Amino acid sequence: MRYIVASAWPYSDFIPHLGTVLHLLSADVYSRYLRSLGNDVVFVTGSDEHGTPIELEARKRKVTPKELTDQVHGYMIKLFKEFNFEFSLFSRTESEVHKGFVKEFLLKIYEKGYIFPMEEELPYCLNDKMFLPDRYVIGTCPYCGYESAHGDQCDKCGRLLTPKDLINPKCALCGSTPVWRKTTNYFIDLTRVQDKLLNWLNNNNKLSDNVKNYSISWIKHGLKPRSITRDISWGIESPFPNTEGKTIYVWFDALLGYLSATKEYFLNLKNDENAWKEYWKNKETKSIYFIGKDNIPFHSIILPAMLLAAEEDYVLPWDINSTEYLMYEGQKFSKSRKIGVWLDEALKIAPAEYWRWALIRTRPEGGDSNFTWKEFVKIVNNELNDDIGNFIYRVLSLVKSKFNGIIPEPQKLENVDLDLNDKVTYYINEYKDSMDEVRLKKATDYILEIARLGNKYLNDRAPWDLYSKDLGLAKGVIYNSTNIIKDIALLLYPFMPSTSDTIWKQLGYNYSIKEIKFDDIINSKLKSGMKISNITPIFKKLPNDFLENIDKIIEKARDEANSERPNLLKEINIAK
């Protein structure tokens, strides 16, 4: 089966924080799982580099926007490598492939009559002497009354807006009331694809109810033409007639990045201009997008609308996996107020694999969730170290001390041992169901259940005592336990790939766990007679005084991370 796995493109204004990283991580976990099943997976995302926020910050620093985003993009690649992301391609909207693709794609839609010029009145700030992008107009939402809605979308009720919709609009930069000036922009006529969009939404059984119902309701309120061009200089130049000085609105630009990045990947891989079409124009391909709930309409309305308008049989989203908001100690992440943890800071505090597990364990799948340092300590010390790591180390230590490092042959098993195998099989099946349904946090519950089951089994059976009383039964218990370790390693792989490979090698395998197919190994048993390798504890607990000193730990991590950042990222402060 062919899959396109995509994650919302992180904006190149600063280092990603934990909430941004979560979407990338979710996509990485799922793509690793799909590959382990033998699927053909292209996993793409990249840096979203265009838009007024970056243009303004670059102007303030007296550098070009490209100089700024070059540093951000390069630094993100470094951090994502440390975080063990396995992209097919992490591209950028400044890629020449991307810029060319966007222009060509939108011109085709224009030639088919879906895009047209229209005069409009836009907010203009007399103080800042510029047309204000939608995001830089703030006012009251006409639908829910939220007083800090932006001109493109209300962050509270999720409705897509235009600056004209807002009540009491203000310039987000200086707070003054903008005036309205006429300009001509190009619009995409969403009404022409409205029926096709509804048909797709109604017949897509993979989409979650919240995505489907929200999108259908939004369409039934009536689609309006949406402006594609903007009166700003930083971005992809408009390819339409008489639009000198205008650029493509950043959202249309970035959404088409999923297609252009796939094209770029195959150009890099085998210099093939058309291989990407085998994925995007193949009915059997399944495409899935990992996003936050505030990005739903862009992926459930705008992206499929563009794909439909192209009239070239592009595959529409198979699934749009949106999460709720991840809070930080009860507050929203904020660069300006230094609320939250950014990726390079996080990597100074704990290993990347700990963060990968902890973020999935905090993943807001059914509602908003809250990252707390107290919960982080519990996840690392109790779940990783005590439940998983302790079981693995205890079993392998017994193999080493009692059986000279050789996994014994199961000479004798009793009903309790066979019952254990049945329970493990049950949890493995529940894990697979959860992964197939993209309930990643739920899947980790079953890994923990297996580890806890293993610890209880080891305590109850006490093979160290059986060793002198009934050697055959002791061998059976140890053999059963090493098989549980094998299963844990396989189940952990999408979430903690380096850790699972370490466990795999300690079991005695001389090849990477990445090379195996999940179903081939999960349904088989370890070969007795295998010699384990040198064993060491898999995890290390956070210090007892970690919570007591967390403020100092964060400050130290922030100082260390800041000292290693590129110059233009050391004190960056962009509103978005």
**Strand elements, count:** 16
Strand order of the largest sheet: 3-2-1-13-14
How many structural domains in the coordinates?
Answer: 3
CATH superfamily of the largest domain: HUPs
InterPro entries: Anticodon_Met (IPR041872), Met-tRNA_ligase_1 (IPR023458), Met-tRNA_synth (IPR014758), Methionyl/Leucyl_tRNA_Synth (IPR015413), MetRS_core (IPR033911), MetRS_Zn (IPR029038), Rossmann-like_a/b/a_fold (IPR014729), tRNAsynth_Ia_anticodon-bd (IPR009080)
Binding site for Zn(2+): 141, 144, 154, 157
Catalytic activity: tRNA(Met) + L-methionine + ATP = L-methionyl-tRNA(Met) + AMP + diphosphate
Subcellular location: Cytoplasm
Describe the structure.
With 576 residues, the protein is α/β, with parallel strands linked by helices. It has 3 domains: 2-104 and 249-347, 3-Layer(aba) Sandwich (Rossmann fold), CATH 3.40.50; 112-247, Methionyl-trna Synthetase, domain 2 (Beta Complex), CATH 2.170.220; 354-522, Isoleucyl-tRNA Synthetase, Domain 1. Helices cover 48% and strands 13% of the residues. It contains 20 helices and 16 strands. The protein has helices at 18-36, 52-61, 65-82, 96-111, 194-203, 209-220, 250-255, 257-270, 277-280, 296-309, 343-349, 352-361, 373-403, 415-436, 440-461, 463-469, 471-492, 497-506, 518-522, 550-564; strands at 2-7, 40-47, 89-92, 115-125, 130-131, 137-140, 149-150, 167-171, 179-188, 226-227, 229-230, 247-248, 286-292, 319-323, 326-328, 369-371. Strands 3-2-1-13-14 form a 5-stranded parallel β-sheet, with helices on both faces. The protein has a 4-stranded antiparallel β-sheet with strand order 5-4-9-10. The longest helix has 31 residues, at 373-403. The model is unreliable at 572-576 (pLDDT under 50).
